[in-house]
Design goal:
Elements: H1 21-27, H2 32-51, E1 62-68, E2 71-76, H3 91-106, H4 113-127, H5 131-140, H6 145-167, H7 176-185, E3 189-190, E4 193-202, H8 206-214, H9 219-224, E5 231-234, E6 253-259, E7 262-272, E8 275-276, H10 283-309, E9 311-314, H11 317-324
Antiparallel strand pairs: 1-2, 1-9, 3-8, 4-5, 4-7, 6-7
Helix pairs in contact: 1-2, 3-6, 3-11, 4-6, 6-10, 7-10
């Protein structure tokens, strides 16, 4: 007896029988009675396949059954594919995606295949790619055209249900007092920036080197040198043995180095001292940070509520732990 529910899509070699258990499983999603009929069909066909000399390949497996008011939703191993952005997804991600779509269905949020087609056209225009190129993206991610279109439909439904369940939550409103509190806890400072300039003064003898190393150059002397282009260095980039540069005055020589050609002199052209960025300067930025953090919190709460309310049955014990995070009893 076959221990696991399997999905066989390989046709018989003689080409006389054309049977897709993928269709049988999908049709079984309407109600529990149809699921059981689908399972019976699976066992029957598997027996026929075993009795023949045709090649057999296990290509899929039911991982989760999500029961809902309108029937049930099957999640298969083959459903665990990347998002259309190419982001890897786990079984938990797929379960949550389906639960959000079911939640949208419960509020009569409808997105048709035609809507998804229009959205696909908009994506093509936005990215400046042809239809064939978009279909190639689908194929590279493991989706047929119809499956890719279904993922787009899911995405639109999820965006709409998030508007209802998350984005309209009053907790997302950020007050000025929230920004002030955040700024006190996370002050922002602009670090000091130093503008330096260098010139190499030639020296043929040790005596000349010693003279250049010790000479107190006047502003007239410094102005006469052929300085290289100025460059900036930030405070955090200063080496430990060069921290003294921070205390140097503008227009003064900060250090001298012996090089092959002579003595290299570095002077401070200008500097911008470290300063505290005011609340008004970063108000919009902080508001966005707070709003994003609150959205993530509300989104996770929404995900938890979906899993807590869902009636899920798992084919593998480890899947239950991966999706629910605990070894709790399955909800019937």
């Amino acid at each position: 007896m076959i221990k696991k529910i399997i999905l066989l899509t390989r046709m018989l070699k003689d080409g006389l029988v054309h049977f897709s258990l993928g269709q049988t499983l999908r049709q079984a999603q309407g109600e529990r009675r149809n699921i059981f009929l689908g399972l019976i069909s699976l066992v029957t066909v598997c027996s026929l396949m075993a009795a023949s000399s045709a090649e057999r390949t296990i290509v899929d497996e039911i991982r989760v059954i999500a029961y809902h008011q309108g029937g049930s939703e099957l999640i298969l191993s083959s459903d665990i594919r990347p998002s259309l952005e190419g982001r890897p997804r786990s079984l938990r991600d797929i379960v949550l995606q389906r639960l959000m779509v079911l939640d949208a269905d419960s509020l009569h949020i409808a997105v048709t295949s035609d809507d998804a087609e229009r959205f696909l056209g908009e994506l093509q225009k936005m990215n400046g790619i042809s239809r064939d190129a978009m279909l190639e993206v689908f194929r590279e991610l493991g989706y047929s055209y119809e499956e890719g279109l279904e993922q787009l439909r899911y995405r639109q439904m999820i965006e709409q249900i998030l508007d209802v369940r998350v984005r309209t939550n009053k907790r997302l409103i950020v007050q000025r007092s929230d920004v002030e509190e955040y700024e006190k806890e996370h002050p922002l400072f602009e670090e000091a920036v130093y503008v330096l300039q260098q010139v190499c003064l030639p020296a043929q003898t040790e005596e000349e080197r010693t003279h250049l190393e010790k000479k107190d150059f006047s502003q007239k002397d410094l102005a006469s040198f052929a300085w290289e282009e100025p460059f900036e260095i930030q405070e955090h980039d200063l080496a430990e043995d060069k921290r003294f540069i921070a205390d140097a005055q503008e227009g003064t020589v900060v250090f001298r180095d012996n090089v092959d050609e002579g003595v290299e002199i570095t002077r401070m052209v200008s500097k911008k001292e470290r300063r505290h960025v005011s609340l008004d300067e970063r108000f919009d930025e902080v508001s966005e940070v707070i709003a994003r953090q609150r959205f993530e919190t509300l989104f996770k709460e929404y995900e938890r509520s979906l899993l807590e309310k869902a009636s899920l049955r798992f084919n593998r014990p480890e899947d239950k732990i991966a999706v629910l995070g605990v070894e709790s009893e399955e909800k019937a």
